User: Fold this.
Amino acid sequence: MKLVVIPILLINIFSSGCIKNEASSKKSQPDPAQIVLATVNNDKITLHDYRRYFLQIQPVVAQLQNTPEGEAALKNIQLKYLYDLIDRHLLVNEAEKLNLKIPQEDLKNAVKKFVAEYDKGGFEKTIQKGGLTMTDWEKMVREELLIKKLISESIEKRITVANDEIENYYKQHIDEFKQAEQVRVSQIVLDDEMEALALWEKLQNNPGSFAQMAQKYSLSPEAGKGGDLGYFPRGQMPPEFEETAFSLRRKGEVSQVFHTAYGYHIFQLQDFKAARQTSLVEVKAKIEGKQLREKIEKEFKPWLAKLRSQAKIKINPYFIQKAKHK
Assistant:
């Protein structure tokens, strides 16, 4: 990689960044879109680009600030994110050179997928809070899709995982595919012991109404699903949950009322899976996917290094020496 530093002075480049309100310093601060942190060939990476990318780890940044150890770690993270952003530009440029395109419908669906994970209006509020616009976000999603497509076209298409590789992995990691015993229970949670006991009495006469009772009375998040907690093995839930859940023996059996920090609980056993060895057929796709990812990663590193070596990359020295969140 041809690295050349750019002698541009940056004045307090992060003092109006994602951590501190910009309103009080707008007059004294230069436009972030005009401050160049690095160039990749003729493509400029500005402070605005960097902030937009760095905002993805803002919660981590907040935790690291205000301690000497945290500030030192933060400086390393800042540099890592700049190098990551340089690589991102290299990959997007390479995708564009190959004339790879992301259909508008694919972009729309990818954005919808993110938005669907938030409450109504929550997504827009979240990105606005981070200083992003919907256009910024769509640009980032498009770049992610382009990079994924580039890796698929340039590396993944020429990689295969043979059946004997999958079989050998299974034999050599046989213990990895042992399935521990699991239970599937539903729960009702109330904050009053007398109400819980009264409900337990009703369930003794009509255990089949458990899901309905959970939907009507339970305070737990999964109440809408009839209180279903799904399958879980030992070691995944709080000890009180495990002790009660694994003591149930018959499908439909209702536990006694028991108390935890969350309230007064009643469990019902929905299913039980004994410990067993999963077969190669069951885990073949999982092993193939794991080995495929490992092969792609192994090919990706030297391939990216070659792209870097062929590019003319300039990095602003002030960023490396002085960049610091305030």
